[in-house]
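Annotated sample (chain length 346).
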Amino acid sequence: MIKYLGSKRTLVPVLGKLAQASGAETSVDLFTGTTRVARALKELGQTVTATDLASYSHVFAKTWIELNANSVPQQELTDALAHLNAVPGEAGYFTQAFCVDARYLQPKNGERVDAIRELIEHDYAGTWLYYPLLTSLILAADRVDSTTGLQMAFLKNWSARSHKPLALTDPGLIIGNGTALQGDALELARQLPAVDLAYLDPPYNQHRYFANYHVWESLVRWDKPATYGIANKRIDVRDDNTKSAFNSRKTMADSLAQVVADLQCETLILSYNNESWLSRAELAAICEPKGRVEILDFDFKRYVGAQIGVYNRSGEKVGEPGQARNIEHVVVAGPTQKVKRMLAAL
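Output written by the structure step:
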C-alpha cells in the first residue's frame, strides 16, 4: 500500500473488530483514500461502497472494492503485467515534470512510468484491466520514490529505494462485492442508499489530499497539466473549485454534520484526531443524531515527515519537527445495545 498521510493502517484491527461486532452486511467508506478500511470491510464479507473525490482513490476503489477476484480472468491480469514490465522506458511528460524539474523518482524509473502509462491508455482503456493496471503502476512508482510520503516536497538526496528498478506486481484483488463512486461527500451522502454501517475519515485540516498527492492525480488523469513551484504541483491546485468544504475551519463542522445527518445508516464509525479543528465534545454532538455515542482514544506516532523537520531545495533546514505523537479519536454511534456490543468486542 502506498505511503499515505492519514492512513488507518494501525487502526484497521480496531475498526475491523468494531465493524464485525456491528453485524453489518452493507457498509460505506465515504472518504476512502487508499481504500484500506473499505478493503478490510470487504474482507469481512460486507458489500462495500467506497467513495472519494480524488481520481487516484477512485482507481483504487475500482480495483479493490468494485472488482470481484472470483469474477475476473486472473491470467489476463498476469499476462498484462508481464507485457508492461517488458516495455522499455521512454522519457515524456512524467519524466520531465517529476524526475527532472522535480525529483520524486529517478529519471530511469520516470521513463518506465511514461512508457507504461501511455501503453495502459492505448491498449487497456475500456477493459476491466484498466484500473488494476493503473493501481499496480502507482504502487510500483511509490516503491521507488524519493519522498517522506507527501508530494509537497522531495528528499535532497535520492532515497535508497529510488535506485531500485520500477516493477509492476499483482495488486491482489479481493473476493466479494462492492461499488466505487467518485464525487464530493456532501453530494454523495444525500444520494447513497441505506447501509448498515458508515465509516467516515474526513480531512482534518486545511491540507488537501489533491495537493498532497498531486503526482498520483496527474498520473491517473494523464492530462499532463501545467505545473508550478518547487513541488511541481498541478496548476489547478490553485483553483477554488478544487478546494473542499472539509479543508476550511469555517465550513468543516457544518459540512460534517450535514453528511452525518444525510447518511442513511444504522451505525456510524468516525475517525478523527487531536490535530483537527473539532473537539471531542463537538464530534459527539455531530454524531448524536445516530444514537448513543462513545469515543475511543488511541495514541500513535505521527508520520515521518512531521518528525524530521522541513528543508528547502538546497537542503537547508527551514522548519522544526512537529510533535512526535497524536491522539486518534474513534467515534461510535448507533443503537445503544449495538454500540455496547461493538465496544465489548475490543
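Annotation: The radius of gyration is 20 Å.
Annotation: Residues 17 and 346 are 7 Å apart (CA to CA).
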